[in-house]
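Residues pack. One example:


***
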Amino acid sequence: MSNAVERLCGREPESGLRPLRPFAPEALDFLSALSAALLKDREAKAYPDVITFAYFCRKAHLARLQEEYAGQLDDRLGRGVVFHIAPSNVPINFAYSLAAALLSGNGSVVKASSRDFVQTRIVCRAMEKLLAEDFPSLAPYVCVVTYPREAQDVTERFSARCHARVIWGGDETVRRVREAALPPRAVEVAFADRYSLLCIRPEAVLALSADELERLAKDFYNDTYLTDQNACTSPRLIYWAGEREAAAEAGERFFGAVGAYARQRYELPAVTAVDKLTAACRAAMKLEGAEIVHGPDNWVTRVRVKRLCPELYDLRSPGGFFLEYAAPTLDALRDFVTPRVQTLSYLGFQPEELRHFVLENRLTGIDRIAPVGHTMDFALTWDGYDLIRTLSRSVSAL
């Protein structure tokens, strides 16, 4: 490997690596063993995102995923080697991407974030131990590396040798990586900048007990503050589907609980506090009728807007910055939702009700619908792509 490349686990696959069948027994066994190892790891228990990944890899959960494809993958093989570019700001994403490729029947070279996340080290340490002791034949299928983003020659080398490329990151990351040519038959999946929102019926918040409200605050915190709102799945807009008076009352109750929960757990750097205030002032100046909602402190920053417009997509800040809009129905989403919108989370709705709304109105965005607290739950269909089918090939016979 290049001097710029640090290997975190596995080994770089050689040319001619043979693909596996989707949900191959050795892949399932490896991921199940990884789950068990992480759930026993004392250090891992301090990181909810690592434990969530461990639960994703449990034997029972993998069996449920496999069952969803029962009878549909008999003619398929993995494509070969998948080169992944993981996002720089979501520590555990690299592991999900690798797991999806392995379940599809592929070997992987995964560029993890060049930031030294403890979560990355924990997972790679567990994988390296399993590969050395119990699964040596899978070492070329589970290669995780890190290198500086400016080392474009490394990106070009890995790209030139892969059969599929998966890019997670912002629009600029996608553009830069695409400067590295792919082989003619290689496929690519790019997960670029997206925007997410939460739809709430006010009465659903007003009806909660104190304990239920605290659980809701915890779930929302996990969707947002846990990743500093860097994840594409993190809701930035709260859409109150109800009368304005009820929405205002529910908003005070909801964000009061969120602020109380965040205050005990989230460290608010001074620079983030300034960024949030700047974003709020920018919104108030730029959007007619926008109103900054003053709270007891700066752990939650809220701006109410009078209408939904494209400018909202770019009004963002980490650390708990939220836009709010209230209307009796969801109809305003018809013109607001573009392909930039990824996840619609909800409280007080039925998921099928929301899916029906998206389909009936033929919205160009919203690929995922999830309850509060589950926006980051990884699935093998992501951003509208079925990863098992995308990262495998069908062998037809006439």
